[in-house]
Amino acid sequence: MQSIIDQLNFWINKVPEEFHQISESKISQRPAPNKWSKKEILGHLCDSAINNLERFIKIQYDHQPFLLTPYDQVLWVQIQGYQELPIGEVLDLWVNLNKKIIRIIENIPYEKLVLQCDLGNNQIKTFKWLIQDYLDHMEHHLKKQILSK
Q1: CA dihedral 118, 137, 31, 35 (to 10 degrees)
Q2: Among 109, 136, 114, 130, which residue's Cα sits nearest to residue 8?
């Protein structure tokens, strides 16, 4: 788990540094009418953090295998109105949510990492896998969509 924590800490420091070098207009620019801006993608990562924070808590005490309930990512971004928010507000939310996720991960007893979660479609994964998947999903968006030149 330490490598995941280290990566999360890396991104918590790196992302604000990178965003402060990009203009608000460029951060808010949508590449196409039905595509998210960099700000909205960061908002999507906030929504991912909100949902996974709850999962990371509940899987430790809820019925096994823990059933992951999906959420409508497009509607979450739209309803939360990330495009209209100042980038500083979105960044602060993302940073603070990930700091909280790190605290949760730091306190997970080792034996709980093998708890199972049900992704649907007969896919059962471990809690450890879910945590790694959270980081992988974040890094996909950060590297390929937000911080790519």
Answers
A1: 10
A2: 136
Residue 142 has which token pair? 């950060």
Amino acid at 75: L
User: 10 Å Cβ neighbour count for 16?
Assistant: 15
Report the amino acid identity of residue 107. Answer: N
H/E element, 1: none
Three-class SS of residue 12? helix
Q: Which residues pair with 99 in a beta bridge?
A: none
CA distances from 61 to 18, 54, 114, 116 (A): 38, 12, 13, 11
Half-sphere exposure of 96 (CA within 13 A, CB side): 6
Q: Under 8 Å CB-to-CB from 72, ≥6 apart: which residues?
A: none
Q: What percentage of the chain reaches a pLDDT higher than 70?
A: 99
Looking at domain 2-146, its CATH superfamily turns out to be: dinb family like domain (1.20.120.450)
Number of C-beta neighbours around residue 2 at 10 A = 8
pLDDT band at 149 (very low <50, low <70, confident <90, very high): low
Would you kindly state where each structural domain of the chain is located, as residue ranges? 2-146
The whole-model pTM stands at 0.96
